[in-house]
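This part of the workshop introduces the protein records we will be handling. Each record describes a single protein and holds just a pair of labelled lines. Instead of coordinates, the fold is spelled out as a row of discrete tokens. To make this concrete, we reproduce a full record directly below:
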Amino acid sequence: MTQVDSVILRKIFGLSKELGKVSFQQIVYESTGFDIIPINRKEIHDKALIDILQNIIKSFLKTSKSARSRYHGDRVNEVGRRIEDVLVHEMNKQPLQVTKLVKPGYPDIQIQQENDRITYLELKTSSVKEKSGFRYFYYTRGNKIKSNARHLLLNIAVSEESPKYWKIDNWVLSDLSKLEVKLKCEFNASKTDIIEEKSKIISS
């Protein structure tokens, strides 16, 4: 069994308090070498992108409400994936090149405009209506980030109207260049680690 210096462990546990809140912009740059470019609503291409996204999302929400569309899923994550598929389909009808980044981790979607400007979009679907201090957004590595880009997060609030059927309530689009994040130290293990011979006591 690997033994780690106890001083190092204590430093690790103290890092979160020592760092406090850190700019997400800096975290992305230090981990990938790429900048987060803030959205400028006065800049013609940024305005065009935000207007397109706003129209798509507003139209999607209006249609969902008028048609009383409901999304089936045991968990909110399943509902989120179905909503994401619909939104990506609608975005691809616009003068945008939209790619779902299917590997795990941040971000979910890459949007490329006609002038080759890249925007990364993260989609979060939640049933939590009020502001909350619980972890909601997290970032572990930036393997899918390949260029300087704008970074947006679309939060969609849903509620379970009947068992396993969810309706969309509202949405918020945020610019992640303004986001501050906190470090949460975590030690983890895979399922293989848990059930390997040195850990296993008894099995069927």
